[in-house]
Fold:
Amino acid sequence: MSSLNKGVEKVEVALRWDPSPSGAPPHDLDIIAGVYPADDPHGEPVYLVHFDRRSPDGTITLNRDSRTGQGFGNDEVMTLELERLTPGYARVVVGVAIQQSGGRRTFGDIANTGVRISEGYTELAKHDFTAVSGATAATVAEFTRNGSGVWEFREDVRGFDVDPDSFARLMGAASS
Structure:
């Protein structure tokens, strides 16, 4: 992990889940990152990274985007190069949303869900979504830039019962 003086610099968020049972519509979970400006860190995001995209400046990239959960290991992986973000950005919130095609699904309906947040070989957090099993979306991490310009990590697991588009708008709201 980075030294305390350097803070968090380059992070990987990896998401996994099991495919849906045979004959059922596929499960599609998505990692979403919202980037917020320094002058309004709890307002509207400047931009979102999701669905096989990257940030305009290339600092946040969705490297793998699965629509079924099939395969071995991680189904989706996002890389956040926080140290490269311009000083105009002060907060990044990362969440996971379940696509709702084929009917309402929650984390409790999908087998073997999990997210791992790491910096290099150091695991910062790992969640299996049991704490938010009734939710259709959840935040998993918050990165904030402190007054010295250093990025800090905070686990932030909060469940939401909304569609993915609504979640993208709400995920950065201040937690209670």
DSSP finds one helix and ten strands in the chain. Residues 116 and 126 are 4 Å apart (CA to CA).
